Amino acid sequence: LVTPTATMAEHVRHELARFGFPVRPARVGTLAHFLDGWGLPPKPPESLLHILIEDALVRLRPARFAAVLDSRGLHAELVKLMEDISGVRDRGEAEFGQDLTSVFEDVETRLEAQGLALRNRRLQGAADKLRSGQAEAPPLTIFDGFFTLSAVECELIEALAEHGSVTVTLPEGARARHRLMGAGFEETRVTEAWRSAERVVISAATPEREAEEIARRILEQAARGRRFREMGVVLRSREPYGALIETPLARFGI
C-alpha cells in the first residue's frame, strides 16, 4: 500500500490494526520507500541539491536569474522543479530555455557521478525494470491518498499493472484519472466519502484567543463522538506556537 507521505503511511498502519487487519510495517509506506528495494540509485538529500544548484548558478550565471542568484527562495524553487519534471535531457532547451537547461544538466551530471538520481529518474528506472523483466511486481499494489499523479508516476503504475493488480484512489477531476482509464483501468465510483475536507476560517483578536478557539472546537468535535486520536493541530513551527496551544489545551483538559 503506497501513500504520499510517511505520516499518512503511519496513520494507515494504525487504522488497519484498529480494524483488526494488522500488516507488516514494510507493506505500507511512501513511494520512495516502495522503490528502495529495486536496486535503483538512491535519492540525494535535499541539502545536497541546494548546494549543487547554488554552485551551478554561481559558475554558469544564467542571465535571467542574475538579480536573485543568491536567493534561497530561488534555490528551493529550482529544487522543486527538478523533482517535478522528468528527463531534463530528453525535454531540453525547447521547454526550459538554454540557461535553465544548462543548470539542470550540470546538477544531474554531478548527481550521476555520485551514484545518485532524482525522484523522477528513479520512477522511470523502476518502470523500465518492470518492462524489461529485471524487477518483479507485487501481486497487488494500492496507491491511496494521492490528489494527483505525475506522468512518470502514471507510467510506473501502468508498468505495475502489466504484471499485477493495481488499485488507485483519486479524487474527482484528477488529470491522471483520464490517462489511467485510457491505459485500460476500470473505474469504480465510491458513493460513501471516506475522506472529506471541511474548511472553516476563524478570525481572532490575539493568538491566545485563536488557541482557545482551537481548543473549543476540539471539545465540540469530541462531544459529537469524534475520538481525540482522530484530531490534530498543525503548527507552522514549533516555536512560538507550541507553548501557545499547549496552555489552553491543558486548561480545557485536552
What does this molecule look like?
The chain is mostly helical and 254 residues long. Helix content is 52%, strand content 5%. The chain has helices at 6-18, 31-35, 46-60, 72-84, 88-96, 98-113, 119-132, 151-161, 175-182, 207-223, 241-251; strands spanning 2-3, 29-30, 140-143, 165-168.
For this entry, give a set of tags:
254 residues, 11 helices, mainly alpha, two-stranded parallel ribbon
Contiguous low-pLDDT stretches (5 residues minimum) are none
Largest sheet: 2 strands, parallel
- Indicate the radius of gyration in whole angstroms: 22 Å
Helix-strand string = EHEHHHHHHEHEHHH
Based on secondary structure, the structural category is: mainly alpha
Provide the helix percentage: 40-55%
Query: Looking across the biggest beta sheet, what order are the strands in?
Result: 1-2
The shape, in one word, is globular
Terminal-residue CA separation: 33 Å
Short description:
The chain has helices spanning 6-18, 31-35, 46-60, 72-84, 88-96, 98-113, 119-132, 151-161, 175-182, 207-223, 241-251; strands at 2-3, 29-30, 140-143, 165-168. The protein is mostly helical and 254 residues long.
